[in-house]
Amino acid sequence: MKLLLLIFLLVPSVQAQQIGLIANTDGRKTVSLNGQWQTIVDPYESGYYNYRYQPSDNGYFKNAKPKSKTDLIEYDFDSSATLNVPGDWNTQSDQLFFYEGTVWYKKSFDYQRKPDTRVFVYFGAANYFADVYLNGEKIGQHEGGFTPFNFEITKLVRDTGNFLVVKVDNKRRLDAVPTLMTDWWNYGGLTREVKLIETPSTFVHDYLIQLQKGSRQRVSGWVKLAGQKLNQRITVRIPEVGINKTVNTDARGFAEVDFNADLKLWSPESPKLYDVTIEAATDQVRDQIGFRSIETKGTDILLNGRPIFLRGVCIHEEAPLRGGRAYSREDARTLLGWAKELGANFVRLAHYPHNEFMIREADRMGILVWSEIPVYWTIQWENAATLENARNQLGEMIARDKNRAAVVIWSVANETPLSDARLTFLKNLISHARSLDATRLMSAAMERHYINDTTQMIDDPLGEYLDVLGCNEYVGWYDGLPEKADRLEWRSKYQKPLVMSEFGGDALFGHHGDAGARWTEEHQESIYQHQIAMLKKIPFLRGTSPWILTDFRSPRRPLPNIQDYWNRKGLISNRGEKKKAFYVLQQWYRDLQH
Ligand code: GCB
After folding, report:
1. CA dist 466 to 143, 177, 423, 444, 480, Å?
2. How far apart are CA 118 and CA 111, in angstroms?
3. What pTM was estimated for this model as a whole?
4. Per-residue pLDDT tens over the stretch 324-366
5. CA distance linking residue 497 with residue 287, whole number of Å
6. Atom 3 of ligand 1 has which residue's CA nearest to it?
7. Distance CA 392, CA 88 (A)
8. pLDDT of the residue at 594
9. At what angle do helices 356-365 and 384-401 cross, to 10 degrees?
10. Which atom of ligand 1 is the closest one to the Cα of 445?
11. Which atom of ligand 1 approaches the CA of 567 most closely?
């Protein structure tokens, strides 16, 4: 028995090699695994379960080939169809347009690992559940469709003939995050880049280099090493301002960093990024980091100590023009370029963390970002596993983007119905986020209600725990006619800034009529005109992000010839055409700048 235990302890478990997300994969040596992957569509998951619905030892992850003419193997990756990675499967194959289930992906590769290096396979995102195997061995699994993850493959990777197999399952589940009901397309697959990351055996695993909360010159954060040589001298350099700050990591490989620097602050008008390097004896990482402060004071939002109004717009991660999930730098530039044209200094990236290009480009273009997790509508508030899942997605979002100046707001929920269980759940998420990142503002799109025909009240108990109040309202679309906005007054229980995080209405581009006729551009235009007049009168309003920059696919929107499975609330159509309301908002955002 003792011997068995000893053997058990000595045999390294493949899964035990997992370490948390590697920060800033851009600054490292990587090998892309993007491109065509062999795929098998598996609606019954027979590549995973046997006919008794038990997990099989001989699933498709073995990538087996018949060894003789009598061998029975009922799948073959190499003669199966391919799908491009990154990319959702729905828009790559007509057969998969509405598909929700399992698709197996396989990529073969050679890799000559150098001595004293470690290798990780990194996924930008896989929607929704991924089981990952290398050379027939399971290396890990991941839940959550919009955040990155990595697994170490140092011990398993071979010089030639590696096969990486991923089972991606996008079946919706009641207990998942998001849950069964959403208003966006459940695009499945390896929707973001996949790459190998090579690091030295002890390497800079993660770091936070940002201004301390409330300060405009004190840089404060930490560096964390992973590997065997955890006690090292680390130097953080910002050459442009002559910073060379040396600290020693402790036995856990951790060191706090704290120094004053004379920095030109990052802002939408001047999105200054500094080259920053983090050097250890065994490793060096480069990043480009902006420094700015973000706070609230009463009902104001202060950027670098000065009040700012967030002229924003919501965006889904929907590829401009071609449709499907957006995943590239070009997609990000197009979407954020349209937001800039609108006069925006702010975007709400709805309803889940978008791909990293969006955040990196926002950093470069000077666009403030609200980033959120898909705690949307009716999550299972009482389910401990659901909470753990939401915490994990929140943690992964923060882990990836915590060094990006553009990100100023983390949001934990969208339109979630009031209950004690919901409040407990969301409070847990808020304190988790604050423990991971004490500098950014916390928000959520909350509930609000009428106290009489013409008064909207914001008193959702969640407001007490947030820095910025978020409210979605559809006065003029789901709630009365556009003119209803004229008589509305807004009140809040809290002395806090409000961002009107959604408003708007549908219009089919090119569909014209009188302003009273639904689905016309004139009707949408009228909604915006009445909304803007109302918004101007809200004394504690400090930002707006109307719904939404572009039309996006939604299974809940079947109306033929108008919606055709698109939510038409875009200010821009899915073909890139600007609707009349775009110009109404653009005019207001111009006026706000003078
Ligand atoms: C909302 C949701 C958003 C929907 C939008 C709509 O309140 O937050 O996800 O897409 O309304 O168009 O109904």
Report:
1. 27, 21, 12, 8, 29
2. 12
3. 0.96
4. 999 999 999 999 999 999 999 999 999 999 999 999 999 999 9
5. 32
6. 183
7. 23
8. 85
9. 40
10. 8
11. 12
